[in-house]
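Lab meeting minutes (informal)
Scribe: AK
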Amino acid sequence: MDNALTITNLRIEVAGSGFDIIDDVNLRIAPGEVLGLVGESGSGKTTVGLAVLGHARRGVKLAGGDVMIGDAAMLALGDVALRQARGRLVTYVPQDPSTALNPALRIQKQLIEVLEFHNFGGSDKARQERVVQVMSEVLLPSTPEFLRRYPHQLSGGQQQRVGLAMAFACRPSVIVLDEPTTGLDVSTQAHVLATVRDLCRAHKVAALYVTHDLAVVANLADRVAVMYAGRIVEQGTAAELFFNPSHPYTRHLIAAAPDMSTDREMVGLRGRAPGPGRRPVGCSFAPRCELATADCRAEFPAEREAGPGRLVRCIRPFEIPQSTQHVAVHSSPIAASATHALMVRDVCASYTGHEVVHNVDLHVDRGECLALVGESGSGKTTLSRSIGGLHREWTGEISLGSERLARSARDRSTAQRLRIQYVFQNPYSSLQPRRTVGDSVARPLIIGGVGKTEANRKVGEMLERVALTASYANRFPDQLSGGERQRVAIARALVSRPEVLVCDEVTSALDVLVQASIVELLSELRRDLGLAMLFVTHNLPLVASIADQVAVLADGKLVESGPTEKVLRHPEAEYTKRLIADTPQIAAAVET
């Protein structure tokens, strides 16, 4: 069977520098096949995905190689031909569905525009029929009332399904999906993934699925390609690659991925991939690889066959790094005192009188981590913001130790505000861009009356504690990676030695290696400092790796709570059972 997409010797450079971002990338995807492209942030996954559309970001140059979709050479097409090819021959679904939809146009208008631009169907009636058909394909209503809605009137999952409808509207040969489920809860994610799988198979569309979520790839993709520092280091079928990875980097990725169906602990990886112009002479992964030898550092390994359909760039394939074999028993929390570190009793929270959280009771003890889980809209963030004093419209009782807290953080004492700290989901917006890292981390200390010299000393110590260095104090947020920014946010929250730490989806935007290192860091700090932690997330496999207790919210109500292993392995509430069933798991996918 001819390939729908063939990428040959693709090279992409930083314009005017000659430094390559992508080098020697070779991929092929057959009609109806899904290829997962995985790797940590900055590995070049999205850059390759955009090249399939014949596009490069500003400052980036498509320097060599071929991208063939059928007989069309995408890198050789002129502007007019490219505009015709995009949407008809190849389509793109971005990570954030709101960026794919025009907020000023109704859903029907946007779908019709795509069909009209490519003259699909040849008549208005045929295009109207296609709109109804494609909405049905993505399991959305095609009623006049629904089609007249604007994007902001849809949920995140519905927006993403409309984005898929637009992508599949003209029956393309190839579709590029760039992290399309990152911001979705597990139930919505499961529906979107099933839609992608069914549409690709039914219409023989080749899909390049760009992601850092290995569990999604294990359950969705037919084959997987692993990228590191702009190069493909391993390719193979999903089942074989996850069951027996041949490249040590792939083994580290899998070891860092949380999975509910195993009892192993997530294992992070120190260091970071080299950027453009900084790649070493030999294997790019050698500086982080415990198996590296002098031969590895001498030259980049040639592509070799590691089995039927298995390709790898490693001179020591299938050898297992010792660090990826680590399995640890979840540590027991510090013995609880008579008073809970944090207690929530009969809390109801509202927005302009509309109640969204109903009579919730929970508590967290010193040294304990309680995971608060549920779908989007279940009330998790509203409850956590109420605890942090960031949402004021609530009733009931929230106590920090033996002290009852006021509704608003402004009405709480300085000491109370310092004793309970909040780490936000987005590390890019939670730091003041005009403040240095040192100034941001020192802020709670200055508020607490600590002198500048003492504050600087404590800032340096805390930056070292979160696996950065004291030299980071002089940097600005835009000089840091996402993982480094989140570490700075954690350092800022912990520098005042709080008793309670509220983490609101703090790893959702991070790749698996950075996520694993953040989880390791939080677990270590919780043990050493005796922190009580409320960990808000919709990532159930992550819960298994970090939490002692789990509380499940559905429609603002607490439907189940208890020890992590009991709730995840033997759930009682039907809602919890559905959440777990919808959660992709690597081990379960490999076994099937």
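Next up, CB showed the second protein from the same session:
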Amino acid sequence: MHLMLNFFRKYRWQTLLMLLALFLSALAEGVGLSALLPLLNVAIKSGSGNDLGSQNPFEQYVVEFLANVGIEPTIGPLLVIVVIGVALKSLLLLVAQRQVGYTAAQIGTDLRLEMLRAMLRSKWEYFLHKPIGQLTNAMATEAQRSSDSFVCGATAITFLIQALIYGCVAVAVSWRAALLSLGAGLLVIGVSHFLVMITRKAGKKQTHLMSSLMSRLTDTLQSVKPLKAMAREHLADSVLAMETSRLNKSLRRQVFSKALLNSVQEVMFTVFIALGMYVALVTYAMEFATVMVLVVTLGRSFSFVGKVQKQYQSMVQSESAYWSIQKSIDEATASREHLDAGVAPCLTDAIEFRSVGFAYDGNKVFSDVSLEIPVGGITALIGPSGVGKTTIIDLTIALLKPTSGEILVAGTPLGKLDIRAWRQSIGYVPQETVLLHDTVLHNVTLGESGLTEGDAERALRQAGAWGFVSSFPNGIHTVVGERGGKLSGGQRQRIAIARALIKRPQLLILDEATSALDPVSEREVCETMAQLKSELTILAVSHDTAIVDAADRIYELGREGATLVSREELASQAH
């Protein structure tokens, strides 16, 4: 029950209220229903004129208790007691079940928020090592299964309390017979426990396979267009079908073990109850009424004990999902960035790279890069693929840290700045543009409350996007579709540029941002950049002629460093 103890520590007051309501509910049921048969037995003996002296100790206690509270042990008052007990039990059980449901919903919500916040606060390297599908699966499937495991655990506790109450009534009637029968019940639980272990193993397998399947599915959906374009979607189908078949096999094993547990328990409990009745009536010549009381109370106790094991089986089926998402949260938390401590950034002077080197997982990307990005100008980075142009951008943003050398912003080492404030002063446009399935306005402002439609229009004009946006039937309120699918590639890119410009950044970074634009649009954007360079600093990674022509400074990047080149040198290299 390590899982439930973990939940109880996190939700102390909710758990205390739930347990109190469950205990009182079970107690009311025990008093109202478990005492029904012996109380009726007392009433029948009294009504028929039989000698009450032959009562067993439990019946004597009941008679004395009723006399002390002024209730005559006849059918009418006893039935009223039963009805009151059942009503009170139902009311308290409603309170307990409501609390279980509320707590389960809170667990799912808390896990999702904790996972989300831990991810968003983690270092960039964390995302480079984690498949997006795995993180999505943790947020959706694993959080829900964790919530379900709590419900099953809480329900198991409910049944356990009820089993104990009925067991206590049985012990009060005949402690020897009750203890013998309860021992037999525990034997049944022990014998069938291996089925719980099978379910636990199947649940762990399910957690692993769901994570793998979601990772592959996410990757496939992100690349479905090129797969279909080349008629190679069958390759993804075969891989996903294999993963799904393995998951189905695990689910079938889980279903079979649960069904088998239900059948085995029912048969074994029935055998022990029948055997107990025979021994009590034939061997020990117990009164039939007493035996019936034991049969009802022990039968109910056995039934609840069986339900405890079934709910426990369901809990361990989902338990691994909780430990999996908790592991993901811990990993993300361990990779947390510490952003707020540092000097407030102010881009009043150049950004300098001094003999900067970087290696990723021990593989060198480049070494000894020295360059300067002047304020109020356009600096272009060029070079062949794989030499680390995007890495230079990631280092500038402080998503990555150099393995050697240092980066200065207006003379201050980047590592000593308030990184959050530094990033807030940056506008970033990646090569791969992903728009939200929302309006143009929301895609530009990202829903930030301080930004107005006027701000969005100004940014769209700067990005050369206002012309086509204003021509839409709904203008700036036009929905762009999933990943911006209703727009052309160039239109999506210009909206992304507007998004980067809307907060008037000090530094604008373009990572191949004009690659999807037609020559006319590219020239218009570059003209806008030229006008903006008096207001901000621009760093662009590009091979496009327009960007290079507009640049004030051009660096050619290689694995051994960066070289400042002129347009004339580039032109001679081209020839």
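CB comment: Residues 233-283 form the longest helix (51 residues).
No objections, moving on.
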